[in-house]
Amino acid sequence: MHAYDLMNIPPRLCSLLWRRLSRRLACELPPLKPTRVWLWQGQQGFALYPPPHCPGASLLRQRVATSTEAAMSLPRAEEGPESQDVSLDALLSIRHQRLVRHVKAVSGDHRRHVLAYCRQYEAGESIHEIARRVCYPPYLLARMLVEVLCKVETRTKVTELMRAPHLIANHRLRREVMHCIAVDIDFSPGADRVSRSIGLDYERELQLRLRALAVPFEDEAMLRARGLPKTPDVRLSVPLGVVDACGKHHVVNWIDSKALYGTRETFEGEVLPQVTRYVNRFGPGCVVFWFGFCPGVQELLSAQECHVVVIDDFPPPVEKLVFLNGDVLETM
């Protein structure tokens, strides 16, 4: 069993299929209840744990069971871990974030060994086999080998060949690159399209809920048409008062949608620098983590006074939202 076997669990693709094929799979897959998962700040991730053996199970069921069992098998940290119930979407989002951090940490080492990988490929070993052996995504390893074997000088040309592998002259290399694209559902172009599609779906959902509440706003396209380069998903035409998870009231001028689970690492390293620019331009705002967020995010915001409130649904589960002029919006 290879460590990368667990990396092959489809993160957001599985979530998308779960939602869209729920009726078709109802007779085969029992509904999954939120699973209690222990989270910690260490270097380990789901990729270090082999998946359980699921004979006779469908591919989707095996991958969902793998993700759930892997989470339940994680040891409790001695530093005092955070425990909370998470959904399937949140579980897959956590796994994907940890996988991305793992890949970023080891990419430099693999790039330094790319010539050795080329020699192994020329000796007859397939790119997919090399990727499984070194625990690295097949698509990213194939991209490195294409750059060297095809003697490509620019990253733009490499991207062009990976998006259109039929342009690769070598028959064997072309066939193996297409195979790596097909089996890698974490970093391939198809996985990127699924991720963007899910993000756009939740942005549209936010806009639909705002319209249902008769809240005036400008979306990202309208803001960019006005020449604004850095824009949130929604800028409110009238400031709105919302209540966070701690029961505190906040006045927000914009809302940003995040179709992921908000871990402290992701929020501090990626989301916070982005929303800080929004705060500097538009004032305080709100971030919606549709799959939930860990308590460490709220603690970080309280310590730094970032003028950003985080919620896991919109409208938030409160009795009412309030405009600054005192008008009350009854929630749905």
TrEMBL record:
It is found in: Cytoplasm; Nucleus. GO terms for cellular component: cytoplasm; nucleus. The keyword Nucleus applies. Its main location: cytoplasm. Keywords: Cytoplasm, Nucleus. Pfam families: TPD (PF14811). This is CDAN1-interacting nuclease 1. It comes from Nannochloropsis salina CCMP1776.
